[in-house]
Amino acid sequence: MGRLVVAAAVAAWAIPLAALVNCVVPEPYMDEIFHIPQAQQYCRGDFLTWDPMITTPPGLYYVSLGYVVSFFPVAWMFRLAETFDVLCSTAALRSTNVVMAIVCAVLFHDLLLCIRPGIGERKATTYAILVALYPVHWFFTFLYYTDVASLAAVLAMYLFCLKKQFWISAMFGAFSILFRQTNVIWIIFFAANGAISYLQELYSKDNVSHENIEATHQPNKAVSGRDNKTASQGLRRRRINSPISKKVVVSESSKVYNSLAEEVCDICLKLWNSKCDVLIAFAPFAFVMAAFVAFIIWNGGIVLGAKEAHVVSPHFAQFMYFSLVSAVALLPWHFTPSRVLVLFHLFGKNKTCSLLAILMGLGLSFIAVHFFSIAHPYLLADNRHYTFYFWRKVIQLNWMMRYMLIPLYVYSWFSTMNILGKSQTRVWVLSFVLSVALVLVPAPLVEFRYYTIPFVILVLHFPVIGNGKLLALGLLYAAADLFTLVMFLFRPFHWEHEPGTQRFMW
Asked: Of which family is this protein a member (predicted)?
C-alpha cells in the first residue's frame, strides 16, 4: 500500500507539471540540446552516431528507447519514419524521467523499510515523498538529464545488495555506470559494506552452530563455564539465563570496537579467513569492476566526450561545499540547539582529542579552500545556473568570505559523521566519507546535481525525526521547488552576444 501511495503522490504533481514545462519550454534546453538529438538517433536505430560533446555513456538513451518501444512496439519494429518525431519527441523523452522519479521514490520507500524495519509504512511513505521533493532532484524530473535515472539505478543496486541478491545488484551497478561513470564509486561502497555484513552473518552462523554442538555434548555444564570457554575461543556472544532454550545471542554486528584500527583489523582477519566465500558471493561486482577498468583503458579516461572541459582536478573545496549544502538541506538534523549541545558535550568528554580533531579539521579545510578551490570557466561565465550566484554572492562575496565559511564546513562534517556514527560502524562512516570525496573531488565544476546520490544515502541512514519537522522541511522543499520552477518557466532573459531565450536552473 505504501508503494502505491508514494507512486500516486509523485505522479500527481510530476505529470501535470511535466505537461506545463513541455508547454512553456517545448524545445530542448541547455544540455538537452545534446541528449535529445542523441536519443532520437537511437530511436531511429542508429547506434553508431555519437555526439562528441556528450560526456556520459548512453544508459539514458537505452532506457528511453525501451520506454518508447514498450508503448509503440509495432511502429518502432517496422521503422515507420513518420512516427519517429512523435515517438521520440522532446516531451516523450522528458517523460522518461517522470517515470524514473516515481521509481526513485518507490525504491527509497523500500530501502528505508529494509534499513529500518521498525519505521512503519506511514513514516517510510512520508520520507519517500519528502526525498522526491528535494529541490535539485525534483527540478530535473522535468528535463532530459541523466541524474534521475542514475539515482534510480544506484538505489536499485543498494536495495538488492541489502537483500543479498548480489547478481541483480551488480547488474544494476553496471547499468548505473551507463548513466554516470562516477557511480562506480558507489558500486565499491555498497559491495565493500555488503561484504562486511556478509562476513558478520557467516561468523554469526558459525558461532551459533558451534554453540549448539557444544550444548549438545555438554548439556549439564554451567552457564558460567560455557561463557568462559566461549570467551577464550573468541566467540562474541552474550547469554542471559541459564537454560539453553532461553539463551539470547547478540549478533556479530553488535560488536563494540574500541577504535577504528581494531575494527579494521578484525574485518581484515575475518575477510582473510573467509576469502573464498566472499570472493564467490561478490564475484559479480568483480566482473563489473574489471569491465569498467577495461573501458577506461580503451577510452583513455573516464569521460567520453568534451574531455578538455572535464579534466580530473584536485577540487577538495567541492568536498566542503557538499557538507554545507547537505547540512542546509537537512536543516532539522544539523542546525538545532539540541544538536549543537550534543556536539558540545561530545567534545567536552575528551577535550584534548576533540581539540586536536577540530584543529585538524579547520587546518585541512583551510588548505582545501585556499589551495584547491577551482573556478571552472563554465561556472564563471554561465549565469543561468544557481551555482553561478552561489559562487559570486556567497563564496566570492569578499576575500574573507571563503575562509569565514570554514567553521561551517567543519561543523557540518562533524555533525554528519556523529549522526551516522550512532547507527553505523566506524568503517561504514569512513568508507562513506571517502566515497563522497572520490566522487566529488575530481570534478572541477561545482554542480549541486553531483550531490544528490550521497545526499539520499544520508537521508536513508539519518535517524527518524518527528512529523512536525518533516512537514516543515517538506514545505521548505516545496517552496524552493515552486520558486525554481517559476524562475525557469516565467522569468526568461536574453544574452546580447547570443540569440535565444535563457532560463534560470540548478
From this structure: Belongs to the ALG10 glucosyltransferase family.
Q: Which string of DSSP letters, residue by residue, matches 234-267?
A: T------SSSGGG-----GGGPPPSSHHHHHHHH
Q: List, in order, residues 6 or more apart from 402 with CB less than 8 Å away.
A: 369, 370, 373, 395, 396
**Among 144, 154, 143, 148, residue whose Cα is nearest residue 177:** 154
435 pLDDT band, cuts 50/70/90, is: very high
Cβ–Cβ under 8 Å, residues 28 and 144? yes
Q: Which residues pair with 505 in a beta bridge?
A: 385
Nine cell digits for residue 272: 582473510
pLDDT tens track for 112-133: 999 998 898 999 999 999 999 9
313/445 Cα distance (integer angstroms): 9
Residue 11 β-bridge partners: none
Within 10 angstroms of residue 266's Cβ, the number of other Cβ atoms is 17
CB atoms within 10 A of CB 327: 20
Query: What are the backbone angles phi and psi of residue 502, rounded to the nearest 5°?
Result: -110, 150
Instruction: Give φ, ψ of 189 to 5 degrees.
Output: -60, -50
Query: Taking CA 360 as the corner, what is the angle to CA 359 and CA 361, rounded to the nearest 5 degrees?
Result: 90
CA-to-CA distance for 363 and 490, rounded, in angstroms?
44
The pLDDT value given to residue 247: 38
pLDDT tens digits, residue range 178-219?
999 999 999 999 999 999 999 888 877 666 555 555 555 554
Question: Rounded mean pLDDT of 101-121?
Answer: 94
SS3 state at 385:
strand
Measured between alpha carbons, how far is 246 from 3 in angstroms, rounded to an integer? 38
Instruction: Decide: 169 and 190 in contact? Cβ < 8 Å.
Output: yes
Question: Rounded to whole angstroms, what are the CA distances from 172 to 154, 176, 197, 365, 501?
Answer: 7, 6, 20, 35, 38
**Is the pLDDT at 290 greater than 60, yes or no?**
yes
Residue 302 DSSP label: S
Around Cβ 430, how many Cβ atoms within 10 Å? 16
- Per-residue confidence (pLDDT) for residue 251, from 0 to 100: 46
Cross-strand partners of 493: 502
User: What HEC string does 451-474 produce?
Assistant: HHHHHHHHHHHCCCCCHHHHHHHH
**Three-class secondary structure of residue 438 per DSSP:** helix
327 secondary structure, DSSP code: H
Interhelix angle 260-273/426-440, nearest 10 degrees? 90
- Give the Å distances, CA to CA, from 372 to 309, 368, 482: 17, 5, 34
Q: Which of 324, 331, 264 is nearest to 471 (CA)?
A: 331
What is the value of pTM for the model shown? 0.88
DSSP label at 494?
E
- What is the C-alpha to C-alpha distance for residues 9 and 451, in angstroms, rounded to an integer? 24
